[in-house]
């Protein structure tokens, strides 16, 4: 009986891993180089990325079961080697090419991005669009619309749309409506590679508690949208902005959870458990 129960529980864990593949996170190495350990221990976390083509560094001794998704962040990265212990399945394109502040955004014209795109296609992986800022995602004059027009004109390949969404007020219905508009506009599956509740002009205005509530509601919403293939919270680590770290991070520099991190674990566990139970429906 005990052996049978153990087998059943093992199958349920495998089933949860197989079907709960939407949830991810953007993360990078913390000062103690223990971010990978935190990633590997998260219930229901199926993938991560770090805005680079090489996986998060660790001194060794930790398994790498969570899928790493590489990114070609900017023009300087197009010829860099992908470094991943597991075979990469998908590739993320340029990060916010409509912006240019040197370190964090790609800063590319539509013409230059389209000219470089065949180099990304040549990797032979499922390929995500450049992820533009929210305001440059929709509309005929937006960077993304102009790029996708070039994609069609040149016969280029984009397999899914990567998008960023930052809510100033926590309105999850508005978030859902925006995602539906993106899907109608481009007709491709969507990966939400950055999302959180924050006004970047007033980064201190939103609390951990507000972001905890937004994370739970937004993740539950996206899990019920069939065209949203994956989503990743921004970000696991504290993110310095205008001299402070907004209250959006899941953990502190020592990987201790914030209220957002506790909520994140809770909702992923709940979503995964519901999916496993659904196998018996």
Automatic annotation (TrEMBL):
The entry's keywords: Hydrolase, Signal
Domain Asl1-like glycosyl hydrolase catalytic positions: 35-263
Signal peptide start and end residues: 1-22
InterPro entries, per the entry: ASL1 (IPR053183), Asl1_glyco_hydro_catalytic (IPR024655), GH (IPR017853)
GO biological process terms held by the UniProt record: fungal-type cell wall polysaccharide metabolic process
Keyword Hydrolase included in the entry's annotation: yes
Keyword Hydrolase assigned: yes
GO molecular function: hydrolase activity
Superkingdom of this protein's organism: Bacteria
Name of this protein: Glycosyl hydrolase catalytic core
């Amino acid at each position: 009986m005990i052996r049978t129960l153990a087998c059943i529980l093992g199958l349920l864990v495998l089933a949860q891993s197989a079907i709960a593949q939407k949830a991810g996170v953007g993360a990078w190495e913390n000062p103690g180089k223990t971010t990978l350990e935190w990633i590997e221990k998260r219930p229901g976390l199926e993938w991560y990325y770090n805005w680079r083509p090489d996986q998060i560094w660790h001194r060794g001794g930790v398994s790498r079961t969570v899928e790493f998704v590489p990114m070609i962040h900017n023009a300087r990265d197009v010829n860099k080697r992908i470094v991943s212990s597991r075979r990469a399945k998908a590739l993320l394109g340029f990060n916010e090419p409509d912006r240019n502040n040197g370190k964090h955004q790609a800063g590319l014209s539509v013409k230059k991005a389209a000219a470089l795109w065949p180099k990304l296609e040549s990797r032979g992986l499922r390929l995500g669009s450049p992820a533009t800022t929210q305001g440059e995602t929709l509309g005929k004059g937006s960077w993304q619309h102009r790029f996708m027009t070039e994609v069609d004109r040149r016969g280029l390949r984009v397999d899914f749309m990567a998008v960023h969404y930052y809510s100033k007020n926590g309105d999850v219905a508005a978030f859902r409506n925006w995602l539906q508009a993106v899907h109608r506009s481009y007709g491709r599956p969507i990966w939400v590679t950055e999302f959180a509740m924050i006004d970047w002009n007033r980064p201190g205005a939103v609390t951990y508690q507000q972001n905890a509530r937004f994370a739970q509601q937004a993740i539950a919403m996206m899990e019920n949208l069939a065209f949203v293939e994956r989503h990743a919270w921004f970000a696991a680590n504290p993110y310095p902005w205008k001299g402070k770290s907004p209250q959006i991070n899941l953990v502190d520099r020592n990987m201790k959870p914030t209220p957002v991190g506790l909520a994140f674990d809770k909702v992923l566990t709940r979503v995964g458990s519901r999916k496993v139970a659904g196998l018996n429906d």
